[in-house]
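Two proteins, back to back. First:
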Amino acid sequence: VSITWGFKESFRSYISSSIANGSWEVSGDVGYEIPEFTFTGGSGFLAPDRSLGEVGFTGGIVFSGHDGILETVLQNPELVVTGPREATLVLDVTGDTMEEVSVNQRDVDFASVTWDGSVETVDADQGVWSVEGAQVVLTQEGSDAFGTYPAGEKMDPMSFRLEVAPGCLDEGTIWWIPGGVAALTVGASALALAIQRGRRSRGQERP
């Protein structure tokens, strides 16, 4: 079970530039290998037709720059499947926007994730569902909380691989995904994805 996502290449370039003179650190289930962050070892549930589900991870990313004036923490990500070939990235958001607006919100529908059949692979025998290069677009809620980019801004593409027990993707039940080992459950309930971030930015140049 894994997600790979670069967040936004221009933002990473800005953080590492001589302007921000910053860096990022990862923790827990989150790793980094140029040019993408990876989230591994997640757990959750997935419907066999892949129209409903969620998978969450622990750990996170800390972006910092401008001698500590800017600090952004993204943690405990969760991908929520909301329909056929669509999902939502939900984050907890705290900090100050570049417009000097303080934010402290949980469960923000931060970005929409969509893909088509050409980038989707389903191996029912092995219980593996993968998507390569899904489109990620910042929502209005994400823009209001993050305060750097407008709604509709394209973020980096996202790829993910979800695993359940072999054969589960062609059964008529919903299956849990605890670190890639499936167990039967009788229902599905609401979704929430969290990345907590803190930021103290005062009029910095838009990355």
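And the second protein:
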Amino acid sequence: LVAAFNGGFKLDVDAGGFVSWGRVAVPLRDGLGSIVTYTSGQTDIGAWHQEVPAPERPVASVRQNLSLLIDNGRPAASVDCVSCWGATLGAVSDPARSALGITADGHLIWAGGEHLTTAALATALLGARVVRAVELDINPEWVAAYLYGHRGGVAPLAPVPIVPGQPGVPGQFLSPYSRDFFTIVAR
């Protein structure tokens, strides 16, 4: 295990779908921002049935969450619409937010932090040369990412928060958790 970060909105808020190894938790919807992982281990991001999935590539999993935050290197036209990007605790416009983007050469970029408008999150991702991105979960309780130190393989994993001062996720994604999340593993 190299890293882990929060997933998308709870599936019962009707913001997207989820499929893993052929099992459908919530049906996928055309046009929604989709994080697609192929059986090869490669991941891509795009609008479902428009940019992803790639033809002839077997899909392992798909997680959708709203429309794309960034597409073709440009922020969504609705980036300044507060209600378009999820309900925030306390109705603030700048809660903790997170997103996953991809660069033109296939590098995944996770971005997140406290007090972020959707426009500020998109600007940060564009600064990292992201060409497509999906907003993930929002609000302080659910935005978290960790890198894991292995200490020579003899001690328990040491989670290191990526966002300084993040409230954290109970168990730091190393124990069962009530919300979805992504893991990055080395082969």
